[in-house]
Amino acid sequence: GQQLNQSPQSMFIQEGEDVSMNCTSSSIFNTWLWYKQEPGEGPVLLIALYKAGELTSNGRLTAQFGITRKDSFLNISASIPSDVGIYFCAGHNTDKLIFGTGTRLQVFP
Amino acid sequence: GAGVSQSPSNKVTEKGKDVELRCDPISGHTALYWYRQSLGQGLEFLIYFQGNSAPDKSGLPSDRFSAERTGGSVSTLTIQRTQQEDSAVYLCASSLFPSLGEQYFGPGTRLTVT
Description:
The structure holds 2 protein chains of 2 kinds.
Chain A: E1 5-7, E2 10-14, E3 19-24, E4 31-37, E5 44-49, E6 55-58, E7 61-65, E8 71-76, E9 85-92, E10 97-99, E11 103-108
Parallel strand pairs in A: 2-11
Antiparallel strand pairs in A: 1-3, 3-8, 4-5, 4-9, 6-7, 7-8, 9-10, 9-11
Chain B: E1 5-7, E2 10-13, E3 19-24, E4 31-37, E5 43-50, E6 65-69, E7 75-79, E8 88-95, E9 104-105, E10 109-113
Parallel strand pairs in B: 2-10
Antiparallel strand pairs in B: 1-3, 3-7, 4-5, 4-8, 6-7, 8-9, 8-10
């Protein structure tokens, strides 16, 4: 099935560092969403973006909906060990989500 | 309130056997989705139920896969004559406003076909 291009594929960072990941598509989406998945769990919704150019924050997380509607990025500031997991972007059009390939984040103390 | 629940959490079955996976969505959510996630991969859409409308089955990989949703709530995903390539985590999600895209996921069922 279709998947969005998400980068980087993995990141290994030190606690306290900022993180940035992005997602691109050849298709336009009406909504962009970011999820986090921890081992043995389902994805948990972090942020939803509904309008091109929108910048939304949730605590240390900030995400933006690209102007072209074909991309989005997620920033995590001052990372902590519990930020470890796989982050997925997802684009939404007609009642279905198309997921990115995921960014695996490791945080070292 | 309670989130999406799925059962069983783990299922090991022999090749050729049938399996049933269950999903209880968040109460009041009219939309229900099934996804498959292979090891280290993203999520692959399987099927989508919305209210009383005919389900969108466009993601089902073969006719061995089927799903039903009874009474607009609980859903069962059935895989007949399981194959080793069916081994994956099967995730269920529900949504109150499917047109906005926000979906809430259960913990998944890890299926292993030996």
